[in-house]
Amino acid sequence: MKTILSFLMIAASLCTVAQVKTPAPSPAGSASTVVGLTDVKIDYSRPRVKGRKIFGEGDGFLQPFGKIWRAGANDGTFVSFSDDVTVEGIKVPAGKYLLYAWPGATEWTLSLYKDLTLGGNTEQYDKTKEAANFKVKSEKLTEKVEMLTYNITDLSDDSKTAKIQLAWENTSVKFSIGVDFDAKVMASIEASTKVNPGNYAAAANYYLATGKDLNKALEWMDLAIAGNPNAFWNIHTKAKIQKAMGDKKGAIATAQQSLDKAKSNKDGDFGYVKLNEELIKSLK
Asked: Which regions of the chain carry the CATH code 1.25.40.10?
């Protein structure tokens, strides 16, 4: 009897462990990037069109206009932000959210939902649990997208904004996200320059790029140059700071100093000969 029981227990154990795996009809997908200093990520399942009509008016479509959709398959679509952001101008705290959508002919309603357990149970949707609710325009695509695809795109030159795009069948929908990294950078400058004076150059560059206190930027760049007098790239930045301050004479003299050091550098000028020549020309 004990032998039979032992055999049954072993067989049950093997059945539990040995599971047959097959490809998922709607495989998992993800998209992520860093916007400014904020990690933005989308985790979702990717259904296929498979010859169906996806978005349209009436019950003949998989996702009829005006009806709530989990914006993906299986447990839905999750959007996460490592810092506080704005979504279509709405302040959204750092965290992870479910994305829901109400498709329309030319305009969609989208929401970020705080209760991650809801998943595809859209009939239990509770508006009091929304982190954001907003409308965006939809666009028609010229090429068919067979599998639902999310992208993080349109990252601005100043790294302060980007867009999350949903594309499926012949429809594209984008919504904007905005980040604020200035407070993080300022805190980092204060902490890092105390530990490593070499960070003064990075701090000065940031102040110049963002139009902050140029006198402070010049002070920091002088400290960086004092630590490495042959760093002609830092001397060039000092000249740009002087130009921004309206000190043309000082900027020309500093740019000439950077030019001379760049020309004499045995490892090459890294393009700073031309940069300095252009800077000097712009000041005359």
From this structure: 182-282
